[in-house]
Please model this.
Amino acid sequence: MRNAIEQAVQEIRDVNIVVGEARKRLEAAWAEIDAMKAAAALRRERRKNMQRSAAENARTSKFCRKARLLEIAGIIDEDDDVLLGIFLAAKEGLKDPARRNSWQRRGQVKALKRGKTRASLIIQFREPPHRHILEKLDEDGFSYDSRRTRWLGDGDLNYGHKLIELSGVGGKALAGQAPNPEDSR
Model:
């Protein structure tokens, strides 16, 4: 009987050892799951912060570009209330398409005079130019409008006049007119 009791106690001890090891494995598995959940949450939060940062950076960049326009217009030193009044009046003026187009042309002309930016450019030759001129236009991203026999792209007026002069065939260059992308090839 004593042997049977000792054997039963030993079996209980063995079961306790097996249960203890199983409990440790289970706790380790739960800890691993918790760590994976925490890592996933951290990745989601980082991704969200990166997206927020990218949006904030884009917004800041846009503000800086717009502030440069205030400087170009010569009104950056005006009082905030005056600037707000100007912007509110401009907002009302933008509702009129003719006024909006007029303001856009004035801005493009000012930018071209400063030589700091590129605007839309139309180049039309009197007759087909030499191949090296065509290659230059293609290289600079211009597209050919076959219906109207003209080249459409971005550049300043001096660039257009220089290409016409180099072509030796004559023509004209028009800046500040937004070409219709459906008209190009």
